[in-house]
């Protein structure tokens, strides 16, 4: 769990701090917030949710769930490769736990998306983009100063993995931004049938 066998980058945060504090922070905040649990099981009692719900289109919602699940898999893969490298992984296991919760939330809200859940996820994805951007920028420097190409988990692979995760977080942020727009302005998602 603790960080070991890591190249010491100049400046901060260190690669250990990235995996112990920076990257897991959005997930810690999500897991500590009850906002995502309340609307899933008690949404009908909330005036806020009664007036801001809509059925998400399958063309948007299903790929969204699949991509979140794939991101979950990528974070587990990163932890596994760090373990094999014996470099330690800090508090990174909290990240796939939070992504698993998000996946379950999206599955449960396949027929009725609520604004409160969308706002919660929007904040989570925003924080995740910020944290992952910091991590990617530091891993880019690590790749320059310490490529470690003979390693079981070279710096170039770390950079690529996290760059892909960052891109996915940005996509999820856009999806939730669009969902919030629909729930607050349009009240319902546009359907393909209505355009035909």
Describe the protein in words.
The chain has 196 residues and is an all-alpha fold. The chain has a domain at 57-187. It has 9 helices and 2 strands, in the order ααααβααβααα. It has a two-stranded antiparallel sheet. Helix 2 crosses helix 6 and helix 7 (115-145) runs antiparallel to helix 8 (155-186). The radius of gyration is 19 Å and the shape is elongated.
Short description:
The chain is mostly helical. It has a domain at 57-187.
Question: Secondary structure elements and their pairing?
Answer:
Blueprint: H1 15-22, H2 25-32, H3 38-42, H4 47-50, E1 53-54, H5 58-85, H6 94-108, E2 113-114, H7 115-145, H8 155-186, H9 192-195
Helix pairs in contact: 2-6, 2-7, 5-6, 5-8, 7-8
